[in-house]
């Protein structure tokens, strides 16, 4: 009798994708967990449920400095085009998608004055100058911020401006033997600038790259600082204290501690400490479980604020309570879809194609971004004129 061999069950393609993206074996999952904690802080702050949640941005900035330090300063030799393309494929597809869809769904029915402001904010976001626009138009913690669905992109503009700075550093630092001194100097100068803004009471410094550069630099300097050699017990204690400081800042900080404030240095140092202590039991138990949220944190960040703003426009009152929870639930679904079909797709394409196709795709992304920005600039201009 002939026996037909049945094929062994194979893992489905979707399960492989989910395991690769959300439960990776080749990545610091506790840092993904830190991202998850940061985005949870920001979303809960914007929902009105966590007074110190703004500290999530400071967490993101330190983490960004750490990863960009590896991508730019630790690569030998540095590959400028690869660095630029990777950043473009990582950021632009989801940003263009969010701003395009929100603009198309919103600008045709809002008041003319609101249309002008929303369109110009979207245009500045697409050219990564949203923080500069916001510093001259609206206070981040003021009530009128709820009228701008793209106001949250100020931090993305900060990040891209930092990318430009670290790109130049990666090109120029090989020319000097004093790399540590240069990085330490940038950190010190920015920290002093931030302290001066605090003394002056300049609250618009919240948006300023020069007041934030010390946070990025702190993350970058992790690569040049000596790694602590601690026993597992001591490492876990230090890690737990650092995590407690970070969580405590999110729970108990008030708006007076927002950047520029000397109080922001504590959670930033705590985050740097956590990054410098990999493979602790505390990290595996506390941060790794929320790492999937960190994986989609960029998409969640992009979509959560427009969701809240649109809901407030639609219902003509400030959304809160169960209605806010429902809005955030919808936003989470949209964010997962954005990650899988937009953000992840762009990165997969960049990994898959050859150099020439990759560069052409990056040029198309930039062209699309600039075209949409020009359209929004025009809409804003026409709305103000008429």
TrEMBL record:
<feature type="domain" description="Acyltransferase 3">
    <location>
        <begin position="30"/>
        <end position="336"/>
    </location>
</feature>
<keyword id="KW-0812">Transmembrane</keyword>
<keyword id="KW-0472">Membrane</keyword>
<keyword id="KW-0012">Acyltransferase</keyword>
<dbReference type="InterPro" id="IPR002656">
    <property type="entry name" value="Acyl_transf_3_dom"/>
</dbReference>
<dbReference type="InterPro" id="IPR050879">
    <property type="entry name" value="Acyltransferase_3"/>
</dbReference>
<feature type="transmembrane region" description="Helical">
    <location>
        <begin position="237"/>
        <end position="255"/>
    </location>
</feature>
<feature type="transmembrane region" description="Helical">
    <location>
        <begin position="322"/>
        <end position="342"/>
    </location>
</feature>
<dbReference type="Pfam" id="PF01757">
    <property type="entry name" value="Acyl_transf_3"/>
</dbReference>
<feature type="transmembrane region" description="Helical">
    <location>
        <begin position="154"/>
        <end position="174"/>
    </location>
</feature>
<feature type="transmembrane region" description="Helical">
    <location>
        <begin position="123"/>
        <end position="142"/>
    </location>
</feature>
<protein>
    <submittedName>
        <fullName>Acyltransferase</fullName>
    </submittedName>
</protein>
<feature type="transmembrane region" description="Helical">
    <location>
        <begin position="362"/>
        <end position="381"/>
    </location>
</feature>
<keyword id="KW-0808">Transferase</keyword>
<feature type="transmembrane region" description="Helical">
    <location>
        <begin position="181"/>
        <end position="199"/>
    </location>
</feature>
<feature type="transmembrane region" description="Helical">
    <location>
        <begin position="290"/>
        <end position="316"/>
    </location>
</feature>
<feature type="transmembrane region" description="Helical">
    <location>
        <begin position="37"/>
        <end position="68"/>
    </location>
</feature>
<dbReference type="GO" id="GO:0016746">
    <property type="term" value="F:acyltransferase activity"/>
</dbReference>
<keyword id="KW-1133">Transmembrane helix</keyword>
<feature type="transmembrane region" description="Helical">
    <location>
        <begin position="88"/>
        <end position="111"/>
    </location>
</feature>
